[in-house]
Amino acid sequence: MNSRHLNFDPYPGEAAQVNFDEQQSNPTSDQRATEAIVIFDFDQHLFEYPNMWMDHCDPDKKDLALEMTRDELGYPWLWSRATNQLMFIYAKTVPEDGFVSFFGPWQNWKDRKPAEIDYVADMPATCTEPKARVEQLDELGIDKTILLPHFGAVWGRYVYDRLDIIRANLTAWNRWAVTVRQEGGGRLEPSGHVTLRGGNLDWLEKELAYLGKNGIKSAFMSYGLVDGRRMSHPDHDRAWQAFVDNGIVPVFHIQDADVRASGLEEGWFVDAGDPLFTALDMTFSHLGVQVAAADLILNGVFDKFPALKFATVELTAGWIGPLIGATEGIPGSTGNVVNGPGLDISYGYEAIARRHTVQLKRQPSEYLLDHFRSTVNPMEPIKAYFDTGFGKNLMFGSDWPHSEGWNKPLTAFRSKMDGVTAEQDSKFFGGTAAELLGIS
Question: Which domains are assigned to the chain?
Answer without folding.
Answer: 29-46+126-437 (3.20.20.140)
